[in-house]
């Protein structure tokens, strides 16, 4: 199995935000996590990416137990994530924002940077090339030199994708990538996620936009009050009585 969680649990004081969740992420597929507000979706992402320590359970990636690894080590293994709110350096260009992503793969230290050693210059060039490559992938070459403060919401979403891609990931966790953008832009981002998968990157996303998810995802897990209540193909999820009652209800066409 590519990435697997076993009995993953997170407690915040008396609140069990994620309760004994077993989930297998399929390689080369679009995997999705859905569920009502407060169901534990973002917390689940934070556990897998090492942002929060688990209360109990295990995260296994390509056969290796990564449960206790810090976020930077997890990222180095090829696991990238975006956040619900894209925090960019507003006073830097789009390019400079994305350059940071690939530094994860470089070895230069502070001394190299101060002395501007050959290694530092070579690695900075590599980071710049990588940033241009991923900006092209997400369709933002034309705004590479724009200040991040001056780009649209949809462009910010693409910059967040680019930042994740600049780390050379094998899997990307995307937290509500289509929140706050219009239907045409949502379709554009769905297209981009398909392109990632075509390029060998496994996608796992959280999303509230049901129509998009049902068209895009290969494999869906539904969380409700921190518990997995269903898992399957979009068709299986749409026809699952527990899901309909607990979550979709009258909101199935959202
Ligand atoms: N750092 C934290 N400290 C305490 N409680 C938290 C923390 N993070 C999340 N929670 C709680 O855990 C539960 C799950 O929250 P989480 O943000 O994971 O849900 P979600 O499914 O991502 O919701 P949404 O769709 O609204 O983003 C909620 O009750 C939330 O209030």
UniProtKB/TrEMBL annotation:
Sequence intervals crossing the membrane: none
InterPro entries: AAA+_ATPase, ABC_AA/LPS_Transport, ABC_transporter-like_ATP-bd, BCA_ABC_TP_C, P-loop_NTPase
Gene3D superfamilies: P-loop containing nucleotide triphosphate hydrolases
Domain ABC transporter: 3-250
Molecular function per GO: ATP binding
Domain of life of the organism encoding this protein: Bacteria
Key words, A-Z: ATP-binding, Nucleotide-binding, Transport
Protein name: ABC transporter ATP-binding protein
């Amino acid at each position: 199995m590519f990435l697997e969680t076993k009995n993953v649990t997170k407690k915040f004081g008396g609140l069990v935000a994620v309760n004994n969740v077993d989930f297998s992420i399929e390689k080369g597929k679009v995997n999705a996590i859905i569920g009502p507000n407060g169901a534990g979706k973002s917390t689940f992402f934070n556990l897998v990416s090492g942002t929060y320590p688990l209360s109990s359970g295990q995260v296994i990636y390509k056969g290796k137990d990564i449960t206790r690894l810090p976020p930077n080590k997890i990222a180095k293994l090829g696991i990238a994530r975006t956040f619900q709110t894209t925090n960019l350096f507003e006073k830097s260009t789009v390019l400079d924002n994305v350059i940071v992503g690939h530094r994860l793969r470089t070895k230069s230290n502070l001394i190299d940077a101060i002395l501007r050693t050959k290694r530092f210059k070579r690695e900075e060039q590599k980071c710049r090339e990588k940033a241009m490559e991923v900006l092209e992938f997400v369709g933002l070459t034309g705004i590479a030199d724009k200040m991040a403060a001056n780009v649209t919401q949809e462009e910010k979403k693409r910059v967040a994708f680019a930042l994740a891609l600049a780390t050379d990931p094998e899997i990307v966790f995307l937290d509500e990538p289509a929140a706050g953008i219009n239907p045409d832009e949502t379709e554009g981002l769905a297209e981009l996620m398909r392109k990632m998968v075509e390029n060998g990157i496994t996608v796992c996303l959280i999303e509230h936009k049901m129509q998009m998810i049902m068209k895009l995802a290969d494999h869906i897990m539904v969380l409700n009050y921190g518990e997995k209540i269903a898992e399957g193909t979009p068709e299986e999820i749409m026809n699952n009585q527990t899901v309909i009652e607990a979550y979709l209800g009258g909101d199935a066409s959202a």
